[in-house]
Amino acid sequence: MQIKHLLIAGLFGLALGASVPAVAESDTMAAWRKTVTQHVWRHRAFPPEAIGQKGDTGVTFVVDRSGKLISNVLVESTGFAPLDAATLAMVERSVPFPKPPAEAKDDLQRVTVLMSFDGTRLNPGPSPEREKLLKSWIEDQARLNAKSPGPDDTKLNSMLRSICRGC
Question: Alpha carbon of 156 to those of 128, 131, 136, 141, 167: distances in Å?
Fold first, then answer.
């Protein structure tokens, strides 16, 4: 698996998900590419319909001298449409991009960003549905146990919430 990623990274001139061109470039251009990559990463969002899915993806996009997005295309698909769509949407949410430095040789700059989505490790935290389910369970347990003071017992509720954090 690592060999596949190294091979893909080598083909695109990439290292560890950052965009780095295959040919040497100035420190200023390298710093700009790093800034753009971080800018895109700040706009990532995991699609709710993809919970339980994971995959690696990559997107290449073109930015003009003013920081305007000219085009974007998926260069590596996860095989799951919602994750692929989230990758493209992440780039579109990132507009406008930081302007390339004045020393950029071309009017259009191509940037590639690789990333991994992992919806198998998400912990969505408490929600109204989970709270309702927990309250229902507490009430059921109180009815089953005649010795229990009932669902209004704050100590019982507190103890159960400390055991079941966001489940």
Answer: 19, 15, 13, 11, 17
**More confident position, 122 or 44:** 44
Burial of 110 per CB tally in 10 Å (0-12, 13-18, 19+): middle
Angle between helices 128-144 and 154-163 (to 10 degrees): 120
pLDDT of residue 119: 85
| Distant-in-sequence, close-in-space partners of 137: CB < 8 Å, separation ≥ 6 | none
Closest CA to 62 of 25, 112, 23: 112
Name the residue among 113, 142, 107 with its Cα closest to residue 41: 113
Quick one: the chain helix, strand, coil %, rounded to 5? 40, 20, 40
Q: Which residue has the tokens 């259009």?
A: 108
Instruction: Compute CA 110 distance to the chain's CA centroid, rounded to the nearest angstrom.
Output: 21
pLDDT, residue 138, reads 72
**Angstrom distance (rounded) from CA 88 to CA 90:** 5
Provide the pLDDT for residue 45. 87
Q: Which residues contact 49 (CB under 8 A, 6 or more apart)?
A: 82
Mean pLDDT of 56-82: 96
pTM given for the model: 0.59
Q: Which residues partner with 113 through β-bridges?
A: 59
Type of residue numbered 83: L
